[in-house]
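Quick note —
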Amino acid sequence: MRHATAVAFAAKVRKGIFRPVLRHLPEHVAEDRLQEGVCLTYEMYVRYAERGVVLDDAVLVHSCRQRATDPGRRFVKHEGQPKRDALDPRHQLDGRFEVYCLDGLPLHSGEQPPSDGDRHIQELAERAFQRDPTDDIVSAISARQWLRSLAEDDRTLVILRVSGCTLTEIATAEGLSVSSVFHRLKQLGHALADHADLSRPRRCGHG
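Predicted structure written out below.
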């Protein structure tokens, strides 16, 4: 039963019934979101088929569109707070950042030149590959040494914060008040800036 259902749904995908959904999606995430929509729709298709109900193509396409255009719907479920994932499509749809894909861009002589739309990505990639990484390596080593020099409690605060925990979550985990966590992390941030010979930011509001 399950095999026959999968074969029938695959035939619909090959037929291209879901392709019109692409026009409702932002170009830079269209293919990925369409795949999410198709996978989620397949789950629904199987559930109904197991009850002896065969859904019409129009219903399937409508379902796919609803799921593909809702960035909160994911075929692979996330634990915790998924929006902390930098590649979560909701951030791209919110305009917070854009992901540039370098796959297939010509980076060597003899290959076809990039299109005008990809030329600026090509230039960014070439500069990144040509840049001397020495400063970044030295900086990383220096920051690691500074972290190791901290007391265990302070090191834990920094690691939790860098890992994406909120002040409230850190306070709860460490049995501290939110204000205590905030002020200690601020002091540690100033200490790191001094260690790295960086200028401290000017005070703003309550700091």
